Amino acid sequence: MVLTLSLLWRVEFPDALERLYHILLKEPYLASYPELVFIGILPLIFTLVCGENFAKYGFRREGFWRSMLYSLPPALLVAWLRGFPKRGYGLTLPWNFYYAVLNLVAYGPLEVFFVVWLIENTDEYLGSEAIPSEGSMAVPMIFGLSHVLWAIHGDLVAAVVNAFMVSLVFVYFGVIYKYTRNIAGFMAAWTLMNRQSLLSAIQCLV
């Protein structure tokens, strides 16, 4: 993503990363664009172009309620303990609704689909059929730990702790997904728990 931006902006890679960091620091709701383009849309396009059945990635009726039962309670608890933001981004109509929906979808359902897509294709490549599978353990860990890369000027220790927590959360939901074979609970829970999803959407509206 950063390499693409560095080519578009005609600057070196570190300068592109620095520039992106300052843009998102000032207007954090714009992060939904790179998230949408470089994470959410890509596996969706691959799935459509290859003519795959979305049931392969958990879009099915079977296991729906079990998926919700195992996923929602911890997500609701985290959302309740964290509370809701008191300050917003100061956006006006119609941009507040537009960015609220964009952040909610990009950092909720689409981000989960990205991870599940990687899990399923990793397991298919490795021929793994166990629960938990190699994909449901390795992919969430790598995805979670990749969050450390965003600690450019921030607290590195806090970034590592956050990345570790994201990894644990995704491992848990990844295993639940593989067990229930349904993506609904994973999507609903992460939309509630991810700060960039629900909380950011609320801040767009406040």
What does this 3D model show about the protein?
The chain has 206 residues and is an all-alpha fold. Helices cover 72% and strands 0% of the residues. The protein is built from ten helices and no strands. Helix 6 packs across helix 9 (184-193). The chain is globular, with a radius of gyration of 17 Å. 31% of the residues are buried. The model has no long low-confidence stretch (mean pLDDT 88).
Secondary structure topology:
Blueprint: H1 2-9, H2 13-26, H3 32-49, H4 64-82, H5 95-107, H6 109-126, H7 134-145, H8 156-180, H9 184-193, H10 195-205
Helix pairs in contact: 1-2, 3-5, 3-6, 4-8, 4-9, 5-6, 5-10, 6-7, 6-9, 7-8, 9-10
What's the helix-strand series? HHHHHHHHHH
Shape: globular
- Please state the structural category: mainly alpha
Please give the number of β-strands. 0
Give helix % range: over 70%
**Alpha carbon gap, first and last residue:** 30 Å
Average pLDDT confidence is 88
Strand content: under 5%
Uncertain stretches of 5 or more adjacent residues: none
The description of the largest β-sheet is: none
Gyration radius from CA atoms, angstroms:
17 Å
Query: How many helix segments?
Result: 10
